[in-house]
Amino acid sequence: MEYVIELKNVDKEFKVLNRHEGLKGSFQDLFSRDYKIIKAVNDVSMNIKPGEIVGYLGPNGAGKSTTIKMMTGVLQPTRGEILVNGKVPYKNRTANAQNIGVVFGQRSQLWWSLPLIESFKLLKDIYNISDKDYKDMLTLYESLVDIKELYSKPVRQMSLGQRTLSDILAAFLHNPPIVFLDEPTIGLDVSMKAKIRNLIKALNKEKNTTVILTTHDMGDVDALCERIVIIDKGTMLYDNDIEHLRSFFGAYRTLLIKTKKHPEELTDDEKKAELDNVEAIVKEAFADKEFTFSSTDEGWCSILIDESQVRLMKVLNHIQEKIKVYDVRLEEISTESVIRKIYEDAENMKKAN
Amino acid sequence: MRIKSWIALTRVSIMDFMQFRLSAFVMLIGNIIYLIVIYNLWKAIYASVDNATINGMSFNDTMIYLVLASAQFTFMEAYLVWMMSRSIQSGKIVLDLLKPVPYSQYLLFGLEGGNICAFVVTFIPTFIIVEIITKGYIHLGINTLFYLVAATLGMLINFAIDFFVGTICLYTQSTWGINIMKEVVVLFLSGATVPLAFFPETLRKIVMFFPFHAIYNTPLTFLTKGPELSLAESFIMVGEQAAWVIVLILIGKIFWKLSERVITVNGG
Ligand SMILES: Nc1ncnc2c1ncn2[C@@H]1O[C@H](COP(=O)(O)OP(=O)(O)O)[C@@H](O)[C@H]1O
Ligand SMILES: [Mg+2]
After folding, report:
1. Nearest Cα to A196, choosing from A176, A174, A177, A215?
2. Using the beta-carbon criterion (under 8 Å), do A102 and B98 form an inter-chain contact?
3. Among A194, A228, A247, where does a domain finish?
4. Domain residues for A205?
5. Do residues A192 and A289 both lie within one domain?
6. CA A97: distance to chain centroid?
7. Using one digit for the tens of pLDDT, what is the confidence trace for A180-229?
8. Which residues of B are less than 8 Å from A118 in CB distance?
């Protein structure tokens, strides 16, 4: 078997009731046949090889979780074919569950009130893991993260980071060929994110587990994925390896400027104001050129520049004439900017049509 | 290998129960208040008639029956419908559906530990206290063994009904009303709140066609009427329960299989 996961022209539609307002509306809804169809996933195809880590990216509501749920078998595709480990996931879901691991965002599969190790022991028995495999897996875990001290801790007393870590370990425990991670790093601080990325990478390497990871954190992608698939409004925009993505945008470079002494202390609104100001300055001087603007978490203004249109130094010089710049950084194109660009292009294409 | 999963789930649910000692305590207090209320209620009922017995039951018979029924309630009621509706609405059910154990079994054995614990913590002490106060009213013998079997089967019937009602929660947001309705119907028609002997003749006959009486009335009969039951009668009663277990679990499974589409097709 060449591929562990195959999706062929997969659609998923949801039928939702058009709800009416108020008490009278609630009664109307009881008998209403006024449905509308939401197309959550639209003609998605991809093939995934064993051992790959695939980053599945897209903004909120893009259809990432819906796709993952179809691959796990809890959702049935409306049209198209899915094979996971060579089987149709929703047929015989319970039996297929043996061959996958899942983590859904902030939802935990661990027993809330019990020490972590009790959840692990339960999983050992329901997944029928042999004593040896179980012991080996725990030894591996202990070599990768400080998990030992969490064994006796009730899950409800854990921090979000510790719980996410535990949930990821729980998903890998029966050594499934595929693990689905739906936004595993959401809500975590920087150091915990790094820890979790290292863990996922190490487990993937050690066990050759295929990992499908949804996220909208570009750091996850840069740290983990050789391949990314981008989806927006249910439609696939991109599927290729990350190097290809970077070379595809080879003429692009990112200019980062610091317009305040301590931009990291700005509120989100103030950061936006700074960015808008810079955007206005640049657009005024280079009206016919294309740029992509964004702010970084640290409050820097980031400008994606196509050097085949205008030299980066020209833009920088112009900005410096207009406002005080505290610091400057140049970057080869970041994945984040690339993805933003892909979204924007897709938007523009739609508008043009 | 399924059995290994069952045991593991039971084990975990026992430990889970231990974590909530306080709620067991609250349950006990609630139960005592309930008993004080019904004690006074039935005292008033018996005071209002001339006979010492009503429908063949003396005040003592009635009280002992109801005390045991309420003790049985504390270990049988697992609040499955609440649990299912909550996990459906929160979406947590997705994780349960992705376990290599069928959902109904995952629920049953994930609750069973709690039932066993509550049996030990509330039913056995109640039983002993009743025996001491009444100086051996409840006959101890083969009938007590039958009680254990009948209570287990009753629990399975109760589970199957709860699972069926919980499945209805897939179709509607207003699970509160459904659950209350189920509680009232099951507790009344099973003889948990009023002994079936007090039901009018026709109602009692009708009730016998439903599975509810097999949850409370049948097991409790083994305790309160122990020596009067022949072995043959006892086996017929337990056999009827077993038949209900099979029928209801089958119906529950089929209904679930059909209703699962609400999640797998409509996304819950
Ligand atoms: N059960 C559902 N019923 C109706 N609409 C849904 C359901 N689940 C998801 N959707 C809709 O499908 C789209 C994709 O959702 P989702 O896959 O959760 O996106 P993502 O995970 O990328 O944020 C959204 O518009 C969402 O509102
Ligand atoms: Mg999602």
Report:
1. A215
2. yes
3. A247
4. 5-11+40-247
5. no
6. 22
7. 999 999 888 888 999 999 999 999 999 999 999 998 787 888 889 989 99
8. 12, 15
What is the pTM (predicted TM-score) of this model? 0.84
Provide the 8-state DSSP code for B122. Answer: I
Question: CATH number of the domain that A281 lies in?
Answer: 3.30.70.260
Q: What is the CATH number of the domain that holds A46?
A: 3.40.50.300
Using the beta-carbon criterion (under 8 Å), do B267 and A93 form an inter-chain contact? no
Q: Please answer whether residues B103 and B263 qualify as being in contact, where contact means their C-beta atoms are separated by less than 8 angstroms.
A: no
What does pLDDT average to over chain A?
89
The interface predicted TM-score of the complex, written ipTM, equals 0.88
Q: Is A65 in the pocket of ligand 1 (CB under 6 A)?
A: yes
Residues A10-22 pLDDT 10s: 999 998 877 777 7
Asked if pLDDT for residue A246 goes beyond 70, the answer is: no
Last residue of a domain, one of A214, A230, A247: A247
pLDDT tens-place string over residues A144-169: 999 999 999 999 999 999 999 999 99
- Pair (A95, A191) in one structural domain: yes
Domain boundaries, chain B: 2-266
In a domain, residue A346? The reply is no
